Amino acid sequence: MGKYANHQDFGIKAPVKYREDTTSQSYLNGMSAIAPPGMKPRTVRGQRFEERTDPPASTRWHRNYDLAMFGGSEVLPPVRRETH
Question: How distant, in Å, are the alpha carbons of 32, 36, 40, 47, 70 from that of 14?
Fold first, then answer.
């Protein structure tokens, strides 16, 4: 059995400030902590991480996670906006 039994359990146990704490700087700090001596992560990777953890990208990820782990999701897919 995984860490979470269902979507509701996942939502209850998830840290409250998880989305707000997912910044490019937090990513770079974490990667720096595990990087080999003398190496550091690229700044662009931190920027991409932050882009992918902001809505609607995070909504898409959350929905896909629910589908894979629990076989369904209460999260609606993000709405695509047409650009002209």
Answer: 24, 30, 29, 23, 16
